[in-house]
Structure formats: C-alpha cells, structure tokens
C-alpha cells in the first residue's frame, strides 16, 4: 500500500479530541470541517493562479473579498467562502458558479436511486447517514441528468463480432397514453471475444414479438455489429426467422429451459416429475442422433397422452439441438438464456418496489442505472472461456471470430 502523503503530525493535530465516530464523521465532525477547509483552500489557490494569468495578460485585477455559500456534500451541509476578484472574471473550476453540491452527493443519490429507492426514501437515507437535507427537486434534477448519459450509452458503437448474443424481455408496468400498462422491455447482451458480457441496450414495446425483435437487431447492426455466431432466445414464434433476417449466418439456439417449461404446462402435477425426467434424457444426450432416439422413445411412452409436446419438440428440433454439436464448455454457454435471465432477475428486484412508472423515460432511466450498477460488479470471464473460444473458432472458422479490418 502506498504511503500517505499527509504528514503524521498533521493527522495527529486534526484528530486531536476526535475520540468518537460522531466527532470524526458526524454533522459537525472533523471530516466535514476538513472538507470545507480543503475546498476553500483550493478555491483560494485557483484565484491566485487566475490573478497571475491576469497580470501576465497586462490586466489590472485583484482580490475582492468573498461570498458565502453552503455546499451539499456527502458529509452534510458545509459552509464555505468563495473568493472573488474585482473584475468578476474569476470562474472557479472546483465549485462552478451557482453550483451548490459536489459530485460525491450526486453519486450517492444515483446509487440509492439505482437500487429502486423512492425520492422520499432517498431523502430519509441521506438525512440519517449524513444529516443532509435535500429536496425532491434536487433528486429529480440529479437523476434527469442521466438521460444524456443514457442516450450516449444506447447509441454507442458496438464490436464487429460477438461470439454469443442472448435476447430476452421482461414485463414492466408503466403509464402509457394515460393508462398504466404492462409493457415489454427488451434486453440484449453480447459475449465478446475476451469473454466479457456487454449489455447492448434496452427497448420498450407493448408486447414481446418477433417483428419488434427484428427492429432491435437492425439497430444493433447499424451500431457496428457485423456478425453474431450464436443467438440464444426463448421459444417465441418467429424469433429464429427474425434473427436470421438480419444476421443470416447466425446459428439460433432456442432456450431448453423455456422449452421444458412450455412442455410441462400441458402436464398434470402428478406426472410432471416423470415427464421432466424423460425430456431431460433428450437434451442431455451426447449427440443429436442419440437425442433423436430418445425423443422417439419419449413419443412411444408419452406421445398418446401429450402429442402437443412431441409436436413442439419436432417442429423446433433444429433450433433446440444445435448446441449438441459442441463440446461441454460451449454447451454450457448456449443451451439456456440464463445469462440474460440472471440480469433480468436483478432488474426485477430493483423495480418491484415501484408499483408502476409514471413514464417510459422514468423506467428506462432506472433500468439504465441498475444495469450500470450490475456491470460494475460483473465477474471475470470463466476459467474455461479460452477453451470454449478455441472450440468456437474451429466450428465457425477463425475468420469469422477475428475478421480482417
């Protein structure tokens, strides 16, 4: 650990008499006083540099007292004196004119908001932790400032190639055209060649549908994506065709978990364990040929009672069993949409306390902050990623994974 640049003697002097947490961190504690003193000292240094540049430019200018200001900081309201110059040309950079808070407080507000707290809850939390009283207008102003960042994020350039892309949607209640509705928020995640997951963006539509997914994929393409090796999706009708209409070389893998859930929806509770076990034998086969034999066996045992299950598996067979062409490392990546459902689960935890959102913008703003928070805590690529990447390179060709500029 690097040695502190603050002298021990100075620290001892600052901490003299500060024997409790309240004396150190409280509303009138050392940390708050030190924050104000440091800010004020830095402003004085800024003014000195400004006056030096004025003299070098041949202008006559000098100090002209100071004005009082109260900063809202993460340690509570902190009074400071902002120095002035006679010609009123001094523009502080540390604390700009008319600014009444520092970035640390904004980050605290955004962090609490991203966890689904209401404006009132944020006010209470900051008041209890830091003795800082903030208005609902300030919370709205801070969170509204995220809109520009959201726009940049939603329109940023993406990589040319993604090894895997997961596509899914979650339902969010929001006010639309004067009424509260259930609307689908589409989420797309890509797996880079380095093994990191990247959220492409979020999109809103009344219902999940293949036609809208094609619009999402077209936007992703316009943002620079030239190729996707494998796309993992649920069993939505028309989904594979929508994907391949935009990325014709992409292999589509329908989520086995969704398929099994759909199949078991036809089965009475007393038979579900047996049917689930028979279906598990199909999708855990070591090859597509063995899986087909086991589906034939399933039809012999259960086909008369559940013909719709057999029909569904046979109709979607190519999209359900593509993963069986790969070794285990790649199979684990693509046989299910768990990668995106895990993120959607975390998003649902954030929005469940909201009831409904007053607008689409409000929903997307919170989801963006929540996603940003999730990505900050994202894990490193799995230890088997390099092996899986090699297998994908053999299957699809290295020229697709690493195309020439």
Structure report:
With 405 residues, the chain is of the alpha/beta class. The chain folds into three domains: 1-95; 160-254 and 353-394, 2-Layer Sandwich (Nucleotidyltransferase, domain 5), CATH 3.30.420; 256-335. The chain has helices at 8-15, 21-25, 30-56, 103-114, 119-130, 136-144, 146-155, 210-222, 239-246, 256-264, 269-283, 288-302, 307-315, 317-321, 328-334, 338-351, 360-376, 385-396, 398-401, and strands spanning 63-73, 76-85, 161-176, 179-191, 197-205, 227-233, 251-254. It has a five-stranded mixed beta sheet with strand order 5-4-3-6-7, with helices on both faces. A two-stranded antiparallel ribbon has the order 1-2. The chain is elongated and about 95 Å long. The mean pLDDT is 83.
């Amino acid at each position: 650990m690097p040695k502190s640049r603050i002298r021990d003697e100075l620290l001892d002097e600052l901490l003299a008499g500060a024997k409790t947490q309240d004396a150190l961190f409280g509303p009138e504690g050392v940390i708050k006083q030190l924050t104000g003193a440091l800010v004020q000292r830095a402003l004085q240094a800024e003014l000195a540099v400004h006056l030096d540049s004025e003299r070098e430019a041949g202008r006559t200018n000098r100090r002209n007292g100071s004005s009082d200001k109260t900063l809202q900081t993460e340690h509570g309201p902190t009074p400071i004196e902002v120095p002035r110059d006679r010609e009123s040309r001094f523009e502080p950079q540390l604390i700009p004119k008319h600014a009444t808070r520092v970035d640390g407080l904004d980050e605290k507000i955004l962090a609490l908001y991203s966890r689904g707290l209401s404006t009132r809850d944020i006010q209470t939390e900051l008041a209890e932790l830091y003795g800082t009283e903030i208005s609902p207008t300030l919370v709205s102003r801070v969170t509204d400032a995220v809109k520009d960042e959201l726009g940049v994020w939603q329109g940023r350039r993406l990589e040319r190639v993604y090894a895997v892309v997961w596509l899914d949607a979650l339902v969010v209640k929001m006010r639309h055209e004067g009424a509260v509705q259930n609307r689908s928020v589409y989420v797309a995640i890509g797996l880079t060649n380095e093994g990191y997951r990247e959220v492409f963006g979020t999109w809103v539509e009344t219902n999940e549908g293949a036609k809208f997914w094609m619009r999402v994929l077209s936007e992703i393409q316009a943002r620079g994506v030239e190729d996707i090796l494998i796309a993992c999706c649920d069993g939505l009708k028309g989904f594979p065709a929508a994907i391949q209409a935009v990325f014709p070389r992409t292999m589509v893998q329908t989520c086995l978990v969704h398929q099994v859930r759909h199949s078991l929806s036809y089965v009475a509770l007393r038979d579900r364990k047996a049917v689930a076990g028979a279906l598990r034998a199909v999708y855990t086969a070591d090859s597509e040929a063995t899986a087909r034999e086991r589906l034939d066996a399933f039809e012999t045992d259960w086909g008369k009672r559940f013909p719709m299950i057999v029909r569904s598996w046979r109709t979607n067979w190519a999209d359900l069993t593509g993963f069986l062409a790969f070794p285990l490392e790649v199979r684990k990546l693509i046989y299910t949409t768990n990668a995106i459902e895990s993120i959607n689960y975390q998003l649902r935890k954030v929005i469940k306390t909201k009831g409904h959102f007053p607008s689409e913008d409000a929903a997307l703003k919170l989801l963006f902050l929540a996603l940003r928070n999730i990505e900050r805590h994202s894990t490193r690529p799995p230890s088997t990623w390099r092996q899986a990447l090699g297998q994908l390179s053999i299957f699809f060709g290295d020229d697709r994974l690493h195309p020439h500029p």
